[in-house]
Each structure stands twice: as C-alpha cells, then as structure tokens.
Amino acid sequence: MARHTHSPVALQLAMGSLVVGVVVLGLKGFAAWATGSIALFSDALESVVNVVTAVVTLIAVRLAARPANDTLPYGYHKAEYFSAVIVGVFIVVAALLIFREAYYGFMSPRAFVADPLGLAVSVIASVLNMAWAYLLISRGRRERSPALQADGKHLLTDVISTFGVLVGVGLVIVTGWQRLDAILAALVGLSILWSGWQLLRDSVIGLMDVAVDARQLMRIKEIISANAEGAIEAHDIRTRQAGSATFIEFHLVVPGSMTVEAAHVICDRIEAKLREAESDATVTIHVEPEDKAKHSGIVVI
C-alpha cells in the first residue's frame, strides 16, 4: 500500500500562517479602532477569516499527511480540498457581514479619525501579508499542497483589497465625503466574495479527480516510453490528482511469450522512474498480451 506524507515544510508553513494571521489581525484591528473607519473595520474582519483559514489549513495539512490505511486505501489527500471549501464558505459569510456594515455606514455616515499611526499600522500589516502570501503560493506549488496555495491566494487578494482601502481612505480624508468609506467597505466585500468563489470552484474541480496538466502528462509519457524496453506499447493512460498525490494508471502490452517475471521487471523499472519524477505517485499497471495491442498511445517497438 502506498504511503503518502507531506514534508515537514508544509506543516511548518501552515503553523506559520496561523501566527502571521493572528499578528495581522491584531494590527488591522488596531487600525480600525484608531480611525473608526468602516472600510478598515471590514479589512480587519477579513483578517478574522484569514485566521480561520489558517486553522483549517493547518488541520487539513496535518490530516493529509496521514498514511493510507485499510479504511482509506488511497490516503487522506482530499482533506485539503475539503478545507478549501470550508474556507470559501467562511469568506462568503465574512462578505455578507461586511455588506451589512457597509449598508448601515452608507445610510448613516459617520466621521472617522485620520490617525497616522493607525494608517501606518495597516500598511505594515499589508506588507507582512504580501510577503507571506508569496511564500505560501511558491512553497505550496513546490509541496503540491492545494490548501497552502489557497491560503496564499486568499492572502494576496487581502493585500490588494487593503491597498484599495488605504487609497480610498486617503480620498475620504481629502474630499471629506464620508459615504465613500462605506462604499469602499462594500468593494472589500465584493473582492473577498470573488476570492471565495474561486476557492470553491477550484476545490470542486479537485474533488472531481482532475487529471494532471498537459506538461506533466507529457513528462509521464516520456518516462514510460524511455523505460518500457521489452514491451510493445502502453495505452489507456489515465491520471488523477489528489492534493500532493498523483495516481497513474495504464495498460502495458508485452509479447505473448514473455514470462510473468520478465514483465514484472519492466513494470518495476517504469514504476521506479515514475516515482523518481513524481515523488508522491501511485502507479497501477495492467499487463496484457500482444493480441490486446491497440497500436495507439505509446508504441515501444
């Protein structure tokens, strides 16, 4: 039975996200309190979602690291997709709360304090978020962790919306138009609502056993072709991605006179090379005699 685990790096990044999320929430909460701005309050509310996201991501990454067992013979990898769905739901809830605050703020405008320290703290929080977002996305791709990548993409959206809020708050200070503060809050809500939709869409695709991308499939075919000496062809190649795990299945046609042991040697050679290229791969090969050849797929001889 295949054993799939995330590297310690993925777990460390997930724990780091929780720490960063709490720090940023504190900074943005202070900025909202110091200025009284509805837009900055909405930005801080989004950071609450970031903390929830970090908690869910940590749980999902730890769960996905569990090895396969008799109950779940294909492993726990899809836990990360479920976590992204949960995060998407929380984002939608946060957006609705923001819309509520924006509505009351627009109907009953209230002045806020252009506190330099509060605004500066908000900028610092955004810089910290941006740095961490890029780290999560780049390392998440390397670790092939949907949960880490989803967390990073959400943080990046947060950075963009915060930048927009700060520009808007500056306009409110210059123009004195208080309703703009509420309008900005609504725009923050729309921004994170879009982010939530993208997370839900990507997670559903992952849960539907999406195939590997075209470049990865080409690499898999090249490895099979280069290491199938002695066989006739490989056809009906199918792949699916589940978090960090890759599942590869295909039929290998061998001469009818070939012994089972000889065919097994070829299969072992192909599997070993595929696992070198795809470190978390499960390979299933169905061996067939030459009369089953389709003369398609990967022709070896």
TrEMBL record:
* CC per GO annotation: plasma membrane
**Could you tell me which InterPro entries the record lists for this protein?**
Cation_efflux (IPR002524), Cation_efflux_CTD (IPR027470), Cation_efflux_CTD_sf (IPR036837), Cation_efflux_TM (IPR058533), Cation_efflux_TMD_sf (IPR027469), CDF_Transporter (IPR050291)
Q: Does the keyword Transmembrane apply?
A: yes
Topology of this chain in the membrane: Multi-pass membrane protein
Q: Which domain of life is it from?
A: Bacteria
Its transmembrane ranges are 12-35, 47-65, 81-99, 119-137, 158-177, 183-200
Domain Cation efflux protein transmembrane, by residue range, is 17-208
Task: Using the record's annotation, list all stretches that form the Cation efflux protein cytoplasmic domain.
Answer: 216-290
Compartments it resides in: Cell membrane
**Entry's Gene Ontology BP terms:** intracellular zinc ion homeostasis
Q: Record's Pfam families?
A: Cation_efflux, ZT_dimer
The record's GO molecular-function terms, alphabetically, read:
cadmium ion transmembrane transporter activity; ferrous iron transmembrane transporter activity; zinc efflux antiporter activity
The family assignment reads: Belongs to the cation diffusion facilitator (CDF) transporter (TC 2.A.4) family.
* Identification of the protein by name: Protein p34
- Species name for this entry? Paradevosia shaoguanensis
